[in-house]
Amino acid sequence: MDNLLAPTTHTFAVTQHPTPRTEDDLSTILESPGFGEVFTDHMVDLCWSERGGWHRPRVQPYGPIELDPAAAVLHYAQEIFEGLKAYRHADGSIWSFRPEANAARLQRSARRMALPELPTDLFVESLRQLIAVDGRWVPNAPETSLYLRPFMFAKEAFLGVRPAKKVAYYVIASPAGPYFKSGPAPVSIWLSTEYSRAGRGGTGAAKTGGNYASSLVAQQVAYDHGCAQVLFLDSVEGRWLEELGGMNVVLVKADGTLVTPDSDSILEGITRDSILRLAEDRGHRVERRRVSIDEWREGVASGEVTEVFACGTAAVVTPIALLKAEDFEVGSADAPAGELTLSLRQELTDIQYGRREDVHGWMTRLDS
Ligand SMILES: Cc1ncc(COP(=O)(O)O)c(C=O)c1O
Fold this sequence. Notes:
By secondary structure, this protein is of the alpha+beta class.
């Protein structure tokens, strides 16, 4: 769909928060930010309409959004989102990691959910605008960041089932503490055989709220079994690995090959893509193909599969120690994190925090 706002005319109207958090309040928050609980002083928003395209870019005080009760998103879930982080480097500068990849994924999600595509430059500019007013919210302790949450939804008040003609795009941000307080801790995960996350031709590859809503009950079953996350299989044969509720999965073979599911119903993670590129740079073979649950089970039993990890923006890389299912278990809860898992995680976070040369040109500065 058309972008009627030319790239050179991205003038965001800025309204400063009348009572932003005091420096004292902010330093207390940043000492222990948790995740997704506290939000910065401002938010960014743009409108889209069928006739006007993208328009009215704004930065305004963070606060409730007024919505008509008939807004289509509340009824038909026409909504998409992204998640990425702003990192503070040692010199105080603020950076994001591959934001253009998040922009491209938001565009793919938009196409699937019949929403308008937000151009990449406008996406990156929306992040810069938020950092320009709320940069002081980016923490500087090790492994902390400011989590950025761009999202788009159908705002039109209309109960007919068709793509909305009025859409809103927002960016909000929330400081995030270290995911693991003392190094990446291996987790146990639950294999769901009762529920699927996505079906053939469905919305699995889009980052859309409904995928997460439908995963919640399976995630609850995982918690009930003492597991941190749920692993989904394909919905047709119930045999091929898909992904976790919010992370992709990678197996490491004894010969150093990394194997990850190739499926058109999983979310293509930017962390996974980056980790696999770093592994390839080191000379590891990478296979993106169908991976069966038996390959995992038998591989761990025979020693052919030596490490398994999950990856995504929030935790970066999480070692998987144990896979639990109704009638079997693979691995053991006290298994240590794999060596390659840990060293790839270290390399990626070193790039993100500016401690290592960014040879791939993945980092984009947000505060200049
Ligand atoms: C379902 C799902 N799969 C995979 C990922 C990993 O994607 P990324 O590495 O881009 O964060 C996410 C988000 O973190 C997700 O929600």
